[in-house]
Specification:
Layout: E1 17-22, E2 31-38, E3 44-51, H1 64-67, H2 69-73, E4 83-85, E5 94-96, H3 99-116, E6 121-125, H4 131-141, E7 146-147, H5 155-165, E8 173-175, E9 182-186, H6 194-206, E10 210-214, H7 220-223, E11 227-229, H8 236-250, H9 255-261, E12 267-269, E13 288-290, E14 297-299, E15 313-315, E16 318-322, H10 323-331, H11 338-345, H12 349-365, E17 368-370, E18 374-375, E19 381-382, E20 385-387, E21 390-394, H13 396-399, H14 404-418, E22 427-429, H15 497-503, E23 511-515, H16 527-535, E24 547-552, E25 564-567, E26 576-578, E27 590-596, H17 609-620, H18 637-643, H19 680-686, E28 690-694, H20 707-716, H21 732-741, H22 754-760, E29 780-785, E30 810-813, H23 814-819, E31 827-831, E32 836-844, E33 851-855, H24 872-875, E34 913-919
Parallel strand pairs: 6-7, 6-23, 9-10, 9-21, 10-11, 23-24, 24-25, 29-33, 30-32
Antiparallel strand pairs: 1-2, 2-3, 4-5, 4-25, 8-22, 12-16, 13-14, 15-16, 17-20, 18-19, 26-27, 27-28, 29-34, 31-32, 31-34
Length: 952
């Protein structure tokens, strides 16, 4: 007897078309499949976003943020047209204007500046991921005042890594997920690089590898770690150097690696005088070592040389000692013994020793070899590659302190002592890294009217002569980057721009031009103070900062404080270039870059910011954008991406180069170097939005010293010639600044900075206390970190993501809850030397016992982001920013001291100390305090119920 079975379509089509591009919901830059359907308007619309399984970064994995990009694209808070302010700043009163009017207005402000005083334009960008382009625009305008957001985000990590070993964490490198057996994280929150790290941790845990998380807060990656170390904030460097102490005493370091690949054997001048502490070099500038084979001096890279870690050299009455001697002297001191540092770090001495023992055991007892032959830069061929399966990863948690540069340096030195960098199982660089600091440009500040700047704005200084100072010794940049106050500020100091411009220190500016930098709210220290600076007027009634141009895709808090708004598109409506010239999507085994492209056309009168810059450059006739006949070189950003060449054959994109018109090499047949290919963007789109060039097997490890990698990198255009170098355990440029502070050299620091430079700019990693002046009575550490489900401020206006984090309590450890009589849901007054907030609290046991924290960027100002005024983000959400100041409390010397790392200028967000007290709920409706007056938004409040569906 038969049965009638229903006919069920088990695989119904979920879309009519799939368009592949790159996600923008965090810094991972994952590949996505954007499913399209025909909407009610008859046009293709976004129906669904999933991961691209062929993509090298995420291999199909997509997180909540990535999936929620559909709501980012359809957010009610999207700006709809260019806007001109018609009411007072902060009123939110604007009128819509045309793009021609907007561009004419911007050009009318900027053209006179370029003709007379280009430095009066300050151009600073937030999370744009196109810094090679925006810096090119600023350079051609001629202003020295350009940087992106790295100065308040990651400059300590990047700069310490590049000066030490030619690369760092974040986008610079990654653990060898296939071989590592012990993975140790320092200060890693969940917002950055989340998919690759989650995938990597899953892979290593499946093999039985162990994960150790060092973080005051146990969330995210630290929650799945096998061992959690709840360290006292700001003491990571002391803990790391204690590990170094234990490893040195036990002899658990890789002496062969140190002698071959680092400056541990390089000789240091030990005499008193202007050369004390400088490295010994030959007439070609090559560092000198003692060759174990001959006992004689030799340049480090001489074929056949075997550098001696022990031998000293005496010449003309001066003893020269190897760097390794200086390291042993310092770190074998009892100052770094676990018993000495345990109290400050909040980690028992026995635990420090056990962690050091585990690191040593895995690095040396579980060492292995890969049968891969390779040849080093001295011409020696090695039959195998030796693996040390210990890897590290670190992020903002250790970086955002006033001792962050030296802490990051300490972590890199720990890696190098173990021989775990660029070996199987260890930390591996991603192209275009490794690149030593000497391979990067130096900063430039040569300003001339009606001319391009004399070189790139940002770079790496190698001594006082490279500082960005005017002839009178005053700062050349508005943020005081590359000055005696913060000499190695490779990313600039975005957090100081508004404060310095308002104070006229070092000089006044005319126009502040910003992109995606929410400086009137969560991207700023001293939020209330910055709002006052943006609206302050002088004795004539004019604004102290005369003009503000701002670009954003959404009605953020910053919009209300601008005079001209240039509305950006969403990431699905524009071209972007994730370039090898900037922050590419490379993995350790391949060079890769990617694009975004308009998978949908905007339904508003908005334009991609980069295209707007091109159009503005064309109006201003900027030299890099103008042909010899006066015509525009580029019509929009897509045109620039394809046709711009930074040098012959090197452009923003590495894939599918060569058009065959001159070389006869075929259309798009080249990678890295090659002629302009007019169809390049089409090739990227056909390939899923990305391009990959894999590194040859013989070049996969030992990249800084591997001839096969160096040759491959030259072919790809990453280098112009092979540039093997030594890891810098001892960073000589730091010593040059110390020598200046000691009175040597023509360029001298101000008297009030001499002692600070001598104390902090040590060429070997040190640790120093970061407790700020004026903190008496404020004894509790206070931190913020970003949630995995959100990234920067725009996440909490996203309809899907809001359901995960609609409000944020202050998390308080059990000990402080008990001491202050607090229970979940109670309110607490939290104060600092700068201000106070009143917020709800929640107990958290997995937290350093003297630390409170909250999620960052959840709190929103009423009226912004198209949210209802009673939205939880605006009532229960809050920021710790109100407790932080961009300046340190006064020291009584009449000087303005920045709340920054004294070496790089990185914002010291995490040095905040507070006092916590139980408080009554705020009067009336229980809202977090301070409560700011609502701002008027140029877009309407979003609908109460967001119902949205495309197609059937």
């Amino acid at each position: 007897m038969g049965f009638n079975q229903p006919q069920i379509d088990t695989s119904p089509p979920v879309s009519e078309e799939v368009r592949q591009t790159t996600c923008y919901m965090c810094a991972c830059r994952c590949g996505i499949n954007v499913h399209m359907k025909t909407g009610s308007n008859g046009k293709k619309q976004v129906a669904y976003i999933e991961g691209n399984r062929d993509h090298p970064v995420n291999k199909g994995v997509l997180c909540a943020k990535g999936s929620a990009g559909i709501m980012q694209h359809n957010a009610p808070s999207r700006l709809r047209a260019p806007l001109r302010r018609v009411g007072p700043r902060g009123s939110g009163e604007f009128e819509e204007i045309t793009w021609d009017e907007a561009l004419d207005m911007a050009a009318s402000w900027l053209a006179p500046l370029r003709k007379s005083a280009p430095e009066k334009l300050a151009f600073f960008t937030g999370r744009d991921q196109s810094q090679s382009f925006t810096s090119f625009w600023a350079q051609n305008f001629g202003t020295p005042n350009y940087a992106a957001h790295g100065g308040f985000c990651s400059v300590n990590m990047a700069t310490a890594g590049i000066y030490t070993m030619g690369g760092a964490f974040w986008e610079f490198g990654q653990p060898d997920w296939d071989h590592t057996k012990l993975f140790m994280l320092f200060g890693v929150a969940e917002d950055h690089d989340s998919n690759p790290i989650k995938m990597g941790i899953g892979r290593i845990k499946a093999r039985g590898a162990r994960v150790i998380g060092v973080n005051p807060i146990r969330t995210g990656y630290n929650a799945v770690a096998d061992d959690w170390v709840g360290i006292t904030p700001g003491t990571d460097g002391l803990f790391i150097l204690s590990l170094v102490h234990v490893l040195l005493k036990a002899g658990k370091i890789d002496l062969d690696y140190l002698s071959r690949f680092t400056n541990a054997p390089v000789l240091v001048n030990a005499s008193e005088g202007p050369e004390k502490g400088l490295l010994m070099r030959d007439e070609n500038g090559k560092e000198l070592v003692i060759d174990r084979n001959t006992g004689k001096l030799a340049p480090f890279d001489q074929p056949g040389v075997r550098p001696d870690l022990h031998a000293t050299y005496r010449h003309a009455g001066v003893t020269h000692r190897p760097v390794f001697h200086l390291m042993a002297e310092r770190y074998l001191s009892d100052d770094y013994a676990p018993e000495t540092v345990a109290g400050q770090c909040g980690i028992p001495a026995v635990r420090i020793r056990s962690i050091a023992a585990e690191i040593a055991r895995v690095a040396f007892e579980e060492a292995f070899e890969i049968p891969q032959e390779w040849t080093d830069f001295r011409g020696e061929t090695h039959k195998t590659m030796v693996g040390r399966p210990v890897s590290f990863h670190s992020m903002r948690g250790v970086s955002a302190h006033a001792n962050g540069f030296q802490t990051c340096r300490a972590l890199h030195v720990l890696q190098i002592l173990l021989g775990t960098v660029e070996v199987p199982g260890g930390f591996r660089f991603k192209p275009p890294y490794p690149k030593p600091a000497t391979a990067h440009p130096k900063p430039h500040c040569g300003v001339q009217p009606d001319c391009a700047l004399d070189g790139p704005h940002l770079g790496f200084v190698h001594g006082p002569d490279d500082l960005a100072l005017k002839d009178d010794g005053s700062p050349a940049r508005i943020d005081k980057a590359f000055t005696w106050e913060n000499p190695m500020s490779a990313h600039g100091l975005m957090h100081m721009v508004i404060s310095n411009a308002h104070a006229g220190d070092p000089y006044k500016i005319d126009t502040l031009f910003m992109y995606m930098a929410n400086m009137s709210w969560n991207s700023s220290m001293n939020t209330r103070g910055v709002i006052d600076m943006l609206t302050d007027t002088d004795e004539t009634g004019e604004y102290v900062i005369p003009r503000i141009i701002y670009s954003d895709a959404y009605s953020s808090e910053m919009v209300a404080y601008a005079d001209l708004i240039l509305p950006d598109t969403t990431y699905l409506e524009r071209h972007d270039c994730i370039s090898l010239l900037d922050r590419p999507i490379c993995e350790a085994d391949a060079a890769a870059d990617a694009i975004r492209w308009p998978v949908v056309e905007p339904d508003r009168d908005v334009r991609g910011f980069q295209t707007v810059l091109v159009q503005l450059a064309n109006r201003l006739k900027l030299p890099g954008f103008t042909a010899e006949d006066g015509s525009a070189k580029y019509q929009d950003y897509a045109d620039y991406i394809v046709n711009h060449e930074r040098k012959p054959g090197i452009g923003p994109l590495a894939g599918w180069r060569g058009d065959g018109s001159q070389s006869g090499r075929g259309d798009g047949s080249q990678s890295g170097r090659g002629d302009v290919n007019p169809e390049q963007l089409d090739r990227y789109i056909e390939n899923g939005g990305f391009h990959v060039s894999h590194i040859p097997d013989a070049a996969l490890y030992y990249k800084p010293w591997n001839t096969a990698y160096q040759d491959w990198a030259v072919g790809m255009g990453l280098y112009d010639k092979p540039e093997p170098y030594l890891f810098q355990l001892y960073v000589e440029p730091l010593r040059k600044f110390q020598l200046a502070a000691e009175g040597y050299g023509e360029r001298q620091p101000p008297e009030h900075l001499r002692e600070r430079i001598k104390a902090t700019m040590d060429p070997l990693p040190i640790w120093y206390e970061t407790d700020q002046q004026g903190n008496a009575g404020f004894t509790v550490n206070a931190l913020t970190q970003r949630p995995m489900a959100m990234y920067h401020s725009w996440g909490s206006q996203n309809a899907w993501l809001r359901q995960l984090h609609g409000r944020n309590p202050l998390y308080v450890p059990t000990k402080l809850m008990r001491e202050n009589g607090l229970s979940d849901g109670d309110w607490a007054r939290v104060s600092s030397p700068h201000g106070e907030i009143t917020v709800p609290v929640m107990e958290m046991a997995a937290l350093n016992e003297n630390t409170v924290w909250t999620w960052n960027a959840i709190g929103k100002r009423k009226g912004a982001w198209a949210l209802d005024e009673n939205a939880p983000e605006a009532t229960k959400g809050f920021l710790l920013n109100h407790l932080i100041h961009e300046l340190l409390p006064p020291k009584g010397d009449g000087l303005r001291w920045a709340n920054s790392d004294p070496i790089t200028g990185q914002a010291a967000w995490f040095d905040l100390k507070v006092k916590i007290e139980k408080a009554a709920p705020p009067d009336g409706i229980a809202e977090s305090q301070p409560a700011f007056a609502p701002i008027t938004s140029p877009v309407d409040t979003g609908p109460k119920d967001l119902k949205w569906k495309v197609g059937k």
